[in-house]
Amino acid sequence: MNRWRIGVALGVATLLLLLSAPGAEAAGRRDAGVSQIDMPLQPRLYIAPANPDAPDRVLRLPFSSVVVPASDAAIVEYNLTIFDVSGNPVFTRSDVESARLGFFGRVFGGERPQVAIPDDLTWDGTFLGSPVGADGALVPDGDYTYQLTITDDRNRMARTPPFNVTVDNTPPVIDFVEIPEFLVFSPDGDGIRDTITIRQSGSREMRWAARILDSGERLIWEEVWQNASPDIRTRDVPPSSQTVWDGSIRAPGHPQNGSAAPEGAFIYELVGVDRAGNRSVFRSDWRISLNLRSGDVALRASYPAFSPNGNGVQDSLTFETTVLEPDAVASWRLQINPERQPATVVRRFEGGQVVPRRVVFDGLDGQGRRLQDGAYRAQLFVEYENGTVVVSPLVNFEIDTVPPRASINANTFPEVTATGQPLVFGGADRRGIELRMRIEPGLDWSVVFETPVGRRVQTVRELGFTESEFIFQWDGIDPAIGELPDGFYSFSVEAVDRAGNRGQSNVVRIRKDTRAADVDVRLDGNTVQLGRANGGVSIIPVVSVTEGIDQFLLDVRDERGRVVRSRHVRTPFERLVWNGENNAGQPVAEGQYTVDFQVIFSNGNKPRISGVGPIFVDRVSMLVPETPPAVHVAVSPLPFS
Fold first, then answer.
1. Which of 13, 353, 532, 636 has the most CB atoms within 10 Å of its CB?
2. pLDDT higher than threshold 70 for residue 159
3. 429 and 450 share a domain?
């Protein structure tokens, strides 16, 4: 008894493993005593339940033809289960026959109760009996797996491997299809408008086709892009970024393939098809005109850029139109689009049979608001009485209200001036001025010199500079007239861009001062008596130029050259009365002292005098009487007689 139960259990487990493993179908065919589902491996299937035009809206599986019951059993249960990527069941369809053949039925060969096996099983992409969705609601787009299971009346189960199905209700995405730069072309081999180019973008799909239809909507030209490996979804393709039609006939089954298309108006279509059969179609509302005769239109702008800022300079843009066959015009329109949003029309001018020679654009949109700075393009559309629409080549222009930018950083050379101090040059150590200029490239900048003898303007190129950043050194000499006089100067750079905006840098103001100066030191007295009131020496600095002084420096040094007393200021002083004290207020040692004096001027001159003196410092005793002491000398014995 125990061995029989173990044997049955082992037999069932082995059967389930065989049916679940790859190749279970083949093993089942060899064992006629095992119920099986004789279904070969299935490729991934794609359905679009929400799309009434899709070829495959439901998953349809043959069933009765693949269910093979064992010779000694009947199928009493079947089950179709759909799982999402997280393993949740989203759809379950099953049927169970609960009755069983009794003992006497088995003895006398009675008919086994069994479930009715339908010809096929279907799934319409909805939830049924699922914990994650309401019955009848469509499941989200995505990948799913499905599995079939049968059970016979001997409690033996067979199941298919998990197969894949994808629900895709989303049609291919056509991001944009641009109106060609021109819609009339003449494929006559002259090198001018021999082809028409349509730019486009779309999602990656199984198949895309660009199609040219004639006025009767018959296909005359087609180009196809498709996945060459249909089983590999990652190799799906987008449409080509552009379609180029050369005016030839190339369509499946067309009797005139390879010949030139006749003159006329043509429709452009872009068609995308995904694996579930969803289709997206773009059909142009404009027409491509294949015209070997003259009839072109043209558009020209008065400026490449303009600045509608109300300053009176290039505040508007004038478009000049040319129409070669004006008598046949039915209507016209001139539209303006941002370059980055070619499908958006921000301003439209339009009219009937008379195309104006000039159209003035003030930089405002259709609601009277000023358009943002940026790149735009204009195009003229002329519709003729025969229905042909001729489009001018695009005219690109810019709205630019921002003045060009430039900056100047200046300092003296070879010695620099401290930040915040006036820029003065012309002296020994500040012989010139160095201007570091940064200008917006692509413009014709001019340097503006304001001098005591007048104003001078010279282009940057004339000065020999072509880069957007450069250094210009100036020593106060004009090559044309020679040395310029002392005085105040200013430098700036300015330019006008192509939109009429005038830009100017910061103005650098400097002073040229070439005056030389002499310094001297006079001493009122030469002895300092320490400890006596009014015992000091007056040190009087003398300078021949009293303007433009940056530093006024006076030092008293001892015999070893060490500074004992100093006064460093920016404002000149008349004298320094030195009473023999050092910078700390303490008396200096007795001895000889000298004076150094230097003036540093803003223009870089630094005249100096050193070693003036000496000044003697003596110490006076506090016990000295007011009258000189009497001295008596007695010598004994007398040296002489």
1. 532
2. yes
3. yes
